[in-house]
Amino acid sequence: MTTPADVPAPTLTIGEVMNDLADEFPEVSVSKIRFLEAEGLIYPARTGGGVRRFSAADIERLRYVLTLQRDYYLPLRVIRERLTQSEVDGDESGDDDTRAPVTRRELIAASGLTTSRVREAEEAGLLPNLPSGALYPAQSVEICVLIAGLLAMGVEIRHLRPLLAAVEREAELIRARLAPMACRRDSSAPGLVRAEARDTATTLSRLHTVLLETRVASDLADLIGDDPADLGSPRHP
Questions:
Q1: Where along the chain do its domains lie?
Q2: How far apart are CA 80 and CA 70, in angstroms?
Q3: Phi and psi at residue 128, in whole multiples of 5°?
């Protein structure tokens, strides 16, 4: 009699894997998956005829790699190191490490910033000023990638201090609004506070974007004579 343990786990072809991940990762392609295999990041099994067959664990590992690339801008070398460490620790998928903090070396490799630029960002308050060997929060990668982009546009780190001051004022606004809710003694309070904090921060961020676009449209009208209506924003008086 065949037992459940005797039945082989279902596997997918590379095309089926691509279709399975398409909604979450629209940019994924067969060639992309093959490339990640060639780089030693995934190890799908092969049939006698050489056809790749992906197990559930293979797909989760692939999803982890794609997430680190898309959301945290980590280079393949750093992702490979994390996967290797996860295997050493006995967790091959590494899927609980997505939000892991990063070392200074990983931060520099992922963002392209130099060590001196990272220090400058720390001094400006854009990154936490940590002791040697300490780990940066995962969000630091995206912060540094954005800083690198602004530097390429000619915007220096010192120019970003007013932006940080505005963020601190908005954070204080959120804190003051949520303080009474946080004092509630029922068990649902922490979850409600976190949800309200996220919603308020998102709304403030959207408002900031709209106000900035409106102001830029107004400035462009003054600089080059564009009609602000053509830019989707009314001109300031």
A1: 10-92, 101-155, 158-237
A2: 15
A3: -65, 140
pLDDT in tens, the chain (237 residues): 444 444 456 799 999 999 999 888 888 999 999 999 998 999 999 988 889 999 998 999 999 899 888 877 777 888 888 888 776 655 544 444 445 788 888 888 888 899 999 999 999 999 998 887 888 988 898 899 999 999 999 999 999 999 999 999 999 999 998 888 888 777 777 778 888 888 888 898 889 889 988 998 888 888 887 665 555 544 444
CA distance 194 to 227: 42
Q: Does the CA dihedral 200-135-67-69 come out positive or negative?
A: positive
Rg (CA), the chain: 24
d(CA 146, CA 143): 5
Query: Is CATH 1.10.287.3510 what the domain over 10-92 is classified as, yes or no?
Result: no
H or E stretch at 163: helix 161-182
CA end-to-end span of the chain, whole Å?
Answer: 83
How many other CB atoms are found less than 10 A from the CB of residue 86?
19
- pTM, whole model, 2 decimals? 0.55
